[in-house]
Each structure stands twice: as C-alpha cells, then as structure tokens.
Specification:
Elements: H1 21-40, H2 46-73, H3 79-118, H4 121-126, H5 155-178, H6 182-213, H7 221-253, H8 263-288
Helix pairs in contact: 1-2, 3-7, 3-8, 5-6, 5-8, 6-7, 7-8
C-alpha cells in the first residue's frame, strides 16, 4: 500500500494481472455468513463453518496484501496508484462513519424520542401505568432484569487516556518517519500498538465486570443492546486497527517506506485517528450522559 521505491516506477498507472484473491475472499466471507447464521439458529456445526471461513479469510487477506506489498516495494505503484489508495481509504473510513452514525442515531432516538413518548399521559393511562420515562429504564412492561450502568470512572476514563496517548505517539512516529528517523518511528509506533492492545484488555475486563457484577447484558433493554453494539464494534475496530499498525511496524523494521512514500503507514494512521474520535463520542454519550 505504499510506493516505497521509485526505481522501477510505472510511467502512468500499474494494473495488476488477473487474481484469484477477490473470489477466494468472497467465498470465505460467504462461509462465515452461513456459519454464523446456522450457529445462531442452533445448528451445531455452524460454528465450525464460521471458524473455517474466518481462517480462510485471514489466509486470503494475508496472501492478497503480501502481493500488494511486493508490487509497492517493486516500484510498480505510481503517483496515480497512490492517489487511488488515498481515495479508497477515504471512502472506507466514510462508510465506517456512517456505520457508527446509525448506532449513535439509534441511541439518540431511543433516549430523546421513544422514552419520553412512552412516558406521556396517554401511554401511562392506557398501556403502561408503572412506566417511568427515565434513561436507562427496564422497559414499559418491566420484563428487563434490573441492571446497573457502567459509569465513566475508572475504566472508561483509563481507556480514554490510553487512546488519546496512542494518537499522540502515532503522530510522533509519523513525523519521525517523514524526517527519515526510522528508529524513532519504530519506537513510537511500537508504543502505539502496545497502548492499543492494552485498551482491548481493559475493555475485556470492563465487560466481565459489567456482566458479572452489574448484570448488564445484551438483553438489558435498549440500553444494554446499544451499549454492547457501540462499545463492542468499537473494540473490534481498535483490535483491527492495532493489527494493521502491527503489520506496518513489521514493515518499518524490514526497511519498507521512505520519508516521501509511505501511504501504508498513513492509511493505518487515518484509521486509528478515526477510532480515537469515535471513542470520544462513546465516552461522552454512553458513559457520561
């Protein structure tokens, strides 16, 4: 994903030959979907189909990106290829913004529209007289088990500090690479990766605490569902981003990238900063308000 060397740079736009990677990746994704659907519906072997599909996806992406890296390091990626990578990553991040916007929108709607509506005079008189329009709540019928919410102190605040610090260390690493200080770039990128995986560990501990001690589960009404969907998907994105940065770290250690051509680094950095911004929204609207 980077045009590290310009020795054999293509004069206009490099077009790779026919590749089986897209078809292989599509098949593995189909296997994962079928496996997940059958497993959820009680089919015992569904989980094995899911695991086989996941293993196939990892292997397919490994080979696919290895080919892309060889093309880049071989000087085949021109300026126009670099621009296409930037546009592709930009649209990918935009799609992720819309993905999280849907869940934030659901949180806003349930909290500011649905809850007050269910607590108005008509609903209290004729449907749910015992319902109290506060957020979060146990539902209009009282079928949700009592639970406690996760406050901002201390685990979410610690994770906020971790992510904000990781954004700083990543920026330092980027500036070091642009200044051709490879050792410094490697050090600060390694610190970023470490902070990212620590974040995932802290969030795992938070989930255990919420489930065991606070009785906060996925079926704890709208709050429980939205809490785990928002924080869970964000945690997955952190794990994915930390994995991407780990690959970039290995490439840096192998001598890939130059001060002027390093979009592989930049693309992963864009993604990481996006994850940081999403967490700030979560920290405010899920844990504080």
């Amino acid at each position: 994903m980077s045009a590290s060397h310009s020795v054999k740079e293509a004069p206009y736009y490099f077009v790779p030959g026919e590749s089986p990677h897209p078809v292989r990746t599509a098949v593995t994704l189909l296997a994962m979907g079928v496996g997940a659907a059958t497993w959820i519906n009680g089919v015992a072997f569904g989980k094995w189909i899911l695991l086989v599909g996941l293993a196939g996806l990892i292997a397919s992406l490994w080979v696919w990106f290895a080919d892309a890296i060889r093309e880049s390091e071989g000087g085949l990626n021109s300026r126009r290829v670099d621009v296409s990578y930037r546009w592709g990553m930009s649209w990918f991040i935009f799609s992720e913004v819309m993905f999280f916007a849907g869940f934030f929108g659901a949180l806003w709607y349930v909290r500011t529209v649905t809850t007050p509506t269910l607590g108005d005079l008509d609903h209290r008189l004729f449907l749910w007289p015992d319902f109290v329009a506060v957020w979060p709540n146990l539902g209009p019928a009282g079928v949700v088990e009592e639970f406690q919410t996760v406050g901002p102190f201390w685990l979410p605040t610690i994770n906020t500090a971790l992510l904000l610090t990781s954004g700083l260390t990543l920026t330092i690493s980027h500036h070091a690479l642009r200044a051709s200080h490879r050792a410094k770039a490697i050090f600060w990128l390694a610190a970023t990766v470490l902070l990212g995986f620590i974040f995932v560990g802290v969030q795992t501990y938070e989930y255990i605490h919420a489930y065991a001690d606070l009785n906060l589960k996925f079926n704890s009404g709208a709050f429980g569902s939205l809490f785990y969907m928002l924080t869970g998907f964000h945690g997955f994105h952190v794990l994915l981003g930390a994995t991407m940065l780990t690959v970039i770290l290995v490439r840096l250690m192998r001598g890939h990238f130059t001060a002027t051509h390093h979009f592989g680094f930049e693309g992963a950095a864009w993604y990481w900063h996006f994850v940081d911004v999403v967490w700030l929204g979560l920290y405010l609207f899920v844990y504080w308000f």
